[in-house]
Amino acid sequence: MSEELGITVKKKENFDEWYIQTILRSELADYSDVSGCLILRPDAYFIWEQIQKYTDKEFKKVGIKNVYFPLFIPEKLLNREKEHVEGFNPEVAWVTYAGERELDERLAVRPTSETIMYPSYSKWIRSWRDMPLRFNQWNNVVRWEFKHAVPFLRTREFLWNEGHTVFATEKEALAEQEEIVNIYKNITENVLAIPSIIGNKTEKEKFAGAVFTIAFEHMLPDGRAIQGPDFHHDGQKFAKAFDITFLDKKKERKYAWQNTFAISTREIGVMISLHSDDKGLVLPPKVALTQVVIVPIYKTENRNDVLKEARKIENTLSDFRTQVDDRDGVSPGFKFNEWELKGVPIRLEIGPKDIEKKQVVLVRRDTGKKSIVKINNISKEIENLLDGIHSNLLENAKKIMENHTHIAKNYDDLKEIIKTKMGMVKVCWCGEKKCEEKIKEDTTAKIITIPLKQENVNKCICCGKKAKYSVLVAKTY
Ligand SMILES: [Zn+2]
User: Fold this and answer.
1) How far does residue 14's CA lie from ligand 1's centre (Å)?
2) How far is the CA of 471 from the centre of ligand 1 (A)?
């Protein structure tokens, strides 16, 4: 393989460049002619389809149904909830013309769909019997950020799910939190092998328009934190702005209670950054388009025999996404490198001597470990190994998070850790915005989460007063 095909920088030495090269050269994604907008190639789109498939199945189990609302939002609707519009205004892309004709009212390209969905909710919800109303849509959104775009992690257009649910009581709305958090935890950990800290966002960092936001926080290998899936409880704010009311059992008119929640293509970027290495991608088996690649090793005189055996094994492994790389004129060594670059979890090598011994050489992508496996036992071996690879990736990602988690003894210590080591720093906080802002000013890091699991809450790291929470401070992506 030529230098240009492989990765030319080390992950530890230049993470940002390594990340871009890994994505482009493994042919996961490519840049487009629209700045900040990414093209997902088949291997990447397959990953997204798996995230959708697993998530959607869980949504349906709890009674969430899929819908589709328009891409465009009339300006007056977008403006209806004040905090919400303030949160999104700078990033909204507008449609102003149709052909040569200027539109009477500007149309926003959805940055999120609350304001296009809720007028319909207001119409459809009449009585307590119309709830819970639990809808979701799988779509794209546009947020025209001016920060430097990074594939998957920050792009102007991205794919996600938007859950928008309505309940008759606050209690029911709040009860949904655990259900959704569990679904996202299952997807991130059991499908993508990504660990998270789950917690509340501060008032300052919560979603525009929400009463509170619960978010998953991930740790990138370079010590920066990045936010993953989230759940927002909106209370009655949107219900009041969009007149979503109903007659309760006593025939009294009440405002409804709402939640929203999302997981996006950003998770693909987090997954790549955590598991991949200097040779290229390392894919968790559940999202790998090819799980097992069989590379036959032959000369012209035994080509047909070796290929025949390789096909037989491919058939045996039909429960897995298996393919034989039968390209002529490409050396086995080149093929090995290419499949390593593309992150295929398991490679099987088979040549004439292996056929004689009824065996194959098996190579794991995650550890690079080689072993000899008997052909008659191969299906079971592969099944176990795919599970083992997933567990290993998750364990390694947990270690990355642990290694980047620090405890600050005092304020100077916090500043020093952020400056020299980055990562997440555990501190206590009084809950005052003044201290939150001072921390950000002095460290350029922010309070990323108030973890659901609170521990050792004592004195505020900033002002020294009695603390309300233990929190994590980190530089973010
Ligand atoms: Zn304080």
Assistant:
1) 36
2) 12
pTM above 0.85, yes or no: yes
CA–centroid distance, residue 300 to ligand 1 (Å):
75
Number of neighbours of residue 376 by Cβ within 10 angstroms = 10
- Of the candidates 262, 5, 333, the one whose C-alpha atom is nearest the C-alpha of residue 113 is 262
Backbone angles phi, psi at 277, to 5 degrees: -140, -165
Asked if residue 48 and residue 184 are part of one domain, the reply reads: yes
Distance 301 CA to ligand 1 centre (A): 77
**Smallest Cα–Cα separation from 442: which of 405, 475, 477?**
475
302: DSSP letter? G
User: Has residue 224 been placed in a domain?
Assistant: yes
- CA 95 to ligand 1 centroid distance, Å: 45
254 and 313 co-located in one domain: no
Measured from the Cβ of residue 116, the count of other Cβ atoms closer than 10 Å reads: 18
pLDDT band at 85 (very low <50, low <70, confident <90, very high): confident
Q: How far is the CA of 430 from the centre of ligand 1 (A)?
A: 4
**441 CA distance to ligand 1 centroid (A)?**
14
Q: Return the amino acid letter for 470.
A: S
- What are the tens digits of pLDDT across the range 45-62? 999 999 999 999 999 999
Is the distance from CB of 43 to CB of 25 less than 8 angstroms?
no
Task: Give residue 22's domain range.
Answer: 15-275
| 440 alpha carbon – ligand 1 mean position (Å) | 13
Given the DSSP bridges, would you call strands 292-296 and 322-324 parallel, antiparallel or unpaired?
parallel
Q: How far is the CA of 219 from the centre of ligand 1 (A)?
A: 25
**Tens digit of each residue's pLDDT (9 = 90 or more) over 268-287:** 999 999 999 999 999 999 99
Count of domains observed in the chain? 3
- Quick: pLDDT tens for 390-421: 999 999 999 999 999 999 999 999 999 999 99
